[in-house]
């Protein structure tokens, strides 16, 4: 049994070396770095869900993000048909299509309804604030 175990161990070591091109340390380091980077990028996405009703928006949490963060916004229409647009942030959000953008400038942004969804005063009152902080 011990001999078989040793043979298996030797076999997997050889295969392991062959798999990474004869144990090239540089390529191994590169691979590790790539994994690290993708994990960071994923962890940096802040996601919010905005709920729309006639005639207001609310969010599952206050929309405050850190500068440099990637943001994902989802829209759920509970009542009526609403969309959100903000040219400054490059947001074009519909219930079918989440919006993703990079929060690269601090400030307070107003996200407004971009579908005429009722009388002027009702439609124009539909907004929600998004803050980008340092
Ligand atoms: Cu609306």
TrEMBL record:
Signal peptide: 1-18
UniProt cross-references to PROSITE patterns, sorted A to Z: PROKAR_LIPOPROTEIN
Keyword GTP-binding annotated: no
UniProt keywords, alphabetically: Signal
Domain of life: Bacteria
Gene3D superfamilies, per database record: Cupredoxins - blue copper proteins
SUPFAM superfamilies registered for this protein in UniProt: Cupredoxins (SSF49503)
Name of this chain's protein: Cytochrome C oxidase subunit II
Organism this protein belongs to: Neobacillus mesonae
